[in-house]
Design goal:
With 669 residues, this protein is mostly helical. It folds into 4 domains: 167 residues, no CATH class; 123 residues, no CATH class; 128 residues, no CATH class; 102 residues. Helix content is 63%, strand content 4%. The chain is built from 29 helices and 5 strands. α6 runs antiparallel to α22, α12 packs antiparallel against α13 and α18 packs parallel to α22. It is globular, with a radius of gyration of 27 Å.
Length: 669
């Protein structure tokens, strides 16, 4: 990274310091509005307990790993201060998260300054730092997305510094591997994005690098479409394991066969020959995939699958190969590579291997150490919270249902659901009326204009997308979304989608700079300044309204449930809650036990999955249960767990009720 700060970066830092200093000094009740996300307090309470010597535990009883490790490490010294004042760490965290988001904005400015004119880079950075829709996820709330997006942006910035026509050095690959390791520790599901970016970096100086990304993306999508088109969404989840196996097999077989078969360097001057080669090579690859899948279906852990999906996948693979090859010829050099694939491989494979060994060795080593440490300390290699959300998808629960339509599955739907590319939709809809222009139509219009810009080298659009590794980042971001939906994961949240926000802002920044290439530089600077100031004005207005110094203007009292519990339970009581993050952190002389299991122990989850978690609650001596009456008495899994175990004591605010928990053997209601 460059050592000297640009004047814009200094100005941006001053604006961030002033606005977030206002928040950090706000009254306690107003400050909580900044941190009203209950899940963030899971981190805060565990960090407080670790600092106090109680171990990695939310309730001080069961050990938990239901969090992402790097943000927890950052929180521990901050929440050691909670012994002096519970609100002091929140004030400090406001500044820390603001600093991380500022750092992300500066990285975006530096990345785009290399690829666009500075006014466009300034606008994109200002938009990232101050746009309320982005800021609400990255900086407010107190979750890991702030540190997550910072390291993802740093990794993308480092990738943009690689020279297009020179192979990356091993030192550069080591730096990328270290940044990728920090990114995966920031949020573990980044692994999909980091694997794709690593492959792109290994092939940075190869002509076929972006074609490889397109093949990875379309192969993954093709398998999913084949299964879902054959089975429908409802039945697809019964065959998710063979679908995932087929994606892995397809990528492992198709990429090398396409390369050695010459699909990455077809000579389209002889179209019949090129089409014939596509048919033969794709059919060979699809045949091998089919044979391996038939063999894999004999393994009980994989199981059977609809054979017709293989035929549909073959047809989609043909279409994908034709599309990628023609696009590559249209956008790139019309001439085929002078060196045959086998000769090229023999000359380059050792360099590829060394680069891959450095990058993936560092990243893989960190992941393996993390998993081993988790298994040793907690009894499971991965966070229990993710396992629970995937399990929820298999039962009738209030936390959500598995995806049942294409828009949501692909990550673009906006009908009352959390969507991965919400930021992209908001940006594309900025100059239109969203209700009158369907999003898919809007996206298609931008794509057509983008293809036009790609065809004109003088716009620099294609060069910018390539140097920023944008296609690789988009491929990883989409596979990231599909990995959740294909596994039947429920209760997805906005803060999962850091990479998708970055891809959207970088892509649109490059797009608008290319589109306005002929605009007078002074006029571009003026337009960018006006739009940047408008975003900043909207941001400051949102802060003042959200965090007023006059607490009488607050729209909600976030501590009312804590005062209710303190007034209606005795000191030392154990109180079970679904969620309960903020209450667990703020309550005095009582302990909140997390009932949904997201921040509870592996043992608790094992019993909850069997609808027998009351055994655990009996053992620890649970006294009360507090929550939504329907959720804790009727919905799965709580209705079965608490059947005959709860006696209502007092209603807090309909439908939230405080119950006495009856130990086994006590008389029921």
């Amino acid at each position: 990274m460059q050592k000297r700060f640009h004047w814009f970066e200094i100005l941006l830092a001053i604006a961030v310091l002033v606005t977030h200093g206002y928040v950090a000094l706000a009254p306690n009740a107003s400050l909580l509005m900044w941190f009203r996300n209950d899940d963030a307090f899971f981190y805060f309470k565990v960090a407080q307990n670790i600092a106090a010597g109680l171990g990695s535990s939310f309730d001080g009883i069961g050990l938990t790993n239901g969090y992402h490790p790097l943000w927890m490490l950052a929180c521990i010294p901050v929440f050691a201060l909670a012994k002096f004042d519970l609100y002091l760490p929140l004030r400090l965290l406001t500044v820390i998260l603001a600093g991380l988001n500022l750092g992300t904005g500066i990285l975006l400015f530096r990345l785009l300054s290399r690829l666009t004119r500075q006014p466009a880079a300034m606008l994109a950075a200002s938009f990232w730092v101050f746009y309320p829709g982005i800021h609400a996820q990255t900086t407010r709330g107190g979750l890991e997305i702030g540190i997550n997006v910072f390291f993802l942006a740093w990794l993308l910035y480092a990738l943009s510094q690689l020279e297009p026509d020179r192979p990356p050095t091993l030192r550069q690959m080591a730096k990328l591997g270290l940044l990728a390791s920090l990114a995966v520790l920031s949020r573990l599901d980044n692994i999909f994005i980091l694997l794709i970016l690593g492959i792109w970096a290994v092939w940075r100086n190869e002509r076929f690098r972006n074609q490889a990304m397109a093949y990875i993306l379309l192969t993954t999508l093709g398998v999913l479409v084949s299964f879902i088109a054959r089975l429908g969404f409802k039945r697809f989840y019964d065959f998710a394991v063979p679908a995932m196996a087929m994606i892995a097999i397809s990528l492992a077989i198709r990429l090398p066969i396409y390369y050695f078969g010459g699909l990455t360097a077809l000579d389209w001057r002889d179209k019949p020959k090129a089409l014939g080669r596509i048919f033969v090579v794709v059919s060979l690859a699809s045949g091998l995939v089919g044979l391996l899948m038939l063999a894999m279906s004999l393994i009980p852990a994989v199981g059977g699958f609809p054979r017709s999906a293989l035929a549909l996948d073959w047809a989609l693979a043909l279409l994908s190969a034709l599309l990628v090859s023609r696009m590559g010829a249209w956008l790139g050099n019309k001439e085929p590579d002078p060196e045959p694939p086998l000769a090229h491989f023999k000359a380059r494979w050792q360099d590829w291997f060394k680069r891959a060994l450095v990058y993936f060795g560092i990243l893989g080593g960190v992941v393996l150490v993390y998993m081993a440490a988790n298994y040793f300390l907690f009894g499971t290699p991965m966070p229990v919270s993710g396992q629970i959300k995937q399990w929820w998808g298999s039962i009738d629960t209030v936390y959500g249902k598995r995806v049942q339509d294409w828009d949501v599955f692909l990550g673009f739907n906006s009908e009352g659901r959390v969507i991965a590319f919400a930021t992209l939709r908001e940006i594309l809809s900025f100059f239109t009326l969203p209700k009158t222009v369907p999003f898919w139509g809007l996206l298609a219009a931008y794509a057509l204009v983008g293809l036009g810009l790609l065809s004109k080298r003088e716009t620099g659009f294609g060069s910018g997308l390539d140097r920023s590794a944008w296609l690789a980042a988009l491929t990883g971001a989409l596979i990231h979304v599909w990995s959740y939906n294909a596994r039947g994961y429920v209760a997805l949240r906005e803060w999962y989608w850091a990479a998708q926000m970055l891809v959207s802002v970088i892509g649109i920044g490059l797009f608008w700079d290319a589109l306005l290439k002929n605009l007078n530089p002074k006029r571009l600077a003026g337009v960018s300044a006006v739009l940047g100031l408008a975003v900043f004005a909207a941001f400051t207005n949102s802060i003042v309204r959200l965090v007023p110094y006059d607490i009488s203007r607050l729209s909600e009292d976030l501590t009312a449930d804590v005062r209710f519990l303190e007034a209606n339970t005795e000191p030392g009581a154990l109180i079970g809650m679904t969620g309960g993050g903020m209450a667990g952190y703020l309550i005095h002389d009582r302990t909140i036990v997390n009932l949904d299991g997201l921040i509870n122990s592996v043992e608790y989850f094992r019993l909850l999955r069997q609808f027998e978690s009351d055994e655990y609650l009996d053992r620890i001596g649970l006294d009360y249960v507090f929550g939504n009456e329907y959720i804790v008495t009727e919905s799965d899994p709580y209705g079965k767990v608490f059947d005959g175990r709860l006696t209502p004591l007092k209603t807090f605010a309909n439908p939230h009720v405080l119950f006495r928990y009856l130990q086994e053997g006590e008389a029921g209601p």
